[in-house]
Write a structure and sequence with these properties.
Heat Shock Protein 90; Beta-Lactamase; five-stranded antiparallel sheet; single chain; alpha+beta; about 50% helix; 3 domains
């Protein structure tokens, strides 16, 4: 292109090296070139403007003088190893600017071939100091957030354990059997909800929750904690669904409540029974959780979704709203709860 422009202006065509230097000097990045000795034989104008040093001082290994002492060994080691292996490399280091400020450069180099023969390296650099500082600030903010969340989780967990202990103690002292049962039920709910929250807290910030294993663990733990023998748990986890923690948590708490309610109320007199948990895709972008028991169902006089005297089933519609899920609850023949929600 430079040669064509020269010809169109009536000037003699530029040689390949002159074309290269002309284009490099007008590039929007800092460019360097090294020969077979590993020393640099060219720096473009943006590099020289950045360092404020003449070309003669930068040639060979003179440019290393401008690298920050703490980065120099690492920088040279990366360059030397890449040169020996004839492979591309990328590294960052601090280089002294003409005003004395240390600036972070992102330097990328690749082998240069001339007529099919290795002839050295060609590299380019950009000043990414502000971007690097922004990333560092973001990393520190995330670390502070994780520290605060861990402290908050620790305190909430301790408070929940204290609440469970207090409720259990009050239940043991209650003279009214109905009050004692209610207190024990409340203590069990607090403990199970704490277990769900504890598992959710351990999910990495950028990861989702694999809903199938989480709901299975929730259902099995709930059934085990109720201590109710003779109840079989059936699992039909047909599809893998991954949801964010904010959506998976209320869904797990709903399954927890449904299993606890079924174990405590659906099979009076110690009769055996079955609870079924199903997870599947109900359609494109639509997930479905179904919990069914073959117990006595809900009393007919209690309106659907608001059964009197059953705290867990009062909580479920609220939890469904938190999960952005639709809820259908049928208590005519056993209890069948169907939740549908958006998913990927």
């Amino acid at each position: 292109m430079a040669a064509e422009l020269a010809e169109s202006d009536g000037l003699e065509p530029l040689g390949d090296e002159m074309q290269f230097r002309l284009l490099a000097d007008h590039a929007p990045v800092m460019i360097w070139r090294s020969d077979l000795s590993m020393g640099c034989d060219f720096f473009n104008r943006p590099w020289l403007d950045f360092t404020g040093r003449p070309l003669e001082q930068e040639l060979g290994h003179g440019w290393v003088e401008g690298v920050h002492p703490e980065d120099r060994d690492r920088c040279l080691r990366t360059y030397t190893e890449a040169f020996a292996a004839r492979r591309e490399f990328s590294m960052d280091y601090r280089l002294r600017r003409h005003d004395g400020a240390w600036r972070w450069l992102l330097d990328k180099g690749r082998p240069l071939e001339v007529n099919g023969q290795f002839a050295g390296y060609l590299g380019s650099c950009i000043d990414y100091t502000e971007a690097r500082q922004a990333l560092e600030d973001h990393r520190k903010a995330l670390e502070e957030r994780e520290t605060l969340l861990a402290e908050l989780h620790h305190r909430v967990k301790n408070n929940a354990q204290a609440t469970t202990s207090f409720l259990s103690l009050q239940a043991s002292r209650a003279s009214d059997p109905a009050v004692a049962a209610a207190l024990r039920g409340a203590a069990m709910r607090v403990m199970l909800a704490t277990l769900v929250q504890d598992r959710m807290f351990r999910v990495p910030p950028d990861a989702g929750v694999d809903l199938g294993p989480e709901l299975e663990s929730t259902a099995r733990t709930a059934l085990e904690v109720t201590g109710r023998p003779g109840i079989e748990l059936e699992l039909h986890l047909d599809d893998r669904l991954t949801l964010p923690v904010s959506q998976a948590t209320p869904l797990a708490l709903i399954v927890n409540e449904l299993v606890v309610n079924a174990a405590r109320h659906a099979f009076p007199g110690g009769r055996p029974g079955r609870i079924s948990l199903t997870l599947r895709r109900a359609g494109p972008g639509l997930g479905e959780v179904v919990v069914v028991d073959d117990g006595i169902g809900l009393p007919a006089e209690h309106p659907r979704n608001t059964p009197q005297g059953c705290l867990g089933l009062h909580l479920i519609p609220r939890l469904a709203r938190q999960a952005h899920a639709s809820l259908k609850l049928d208590g005519s023949q056993g209890v069948r709860a169907t939740l549908r929600f958006a998913c990927r």
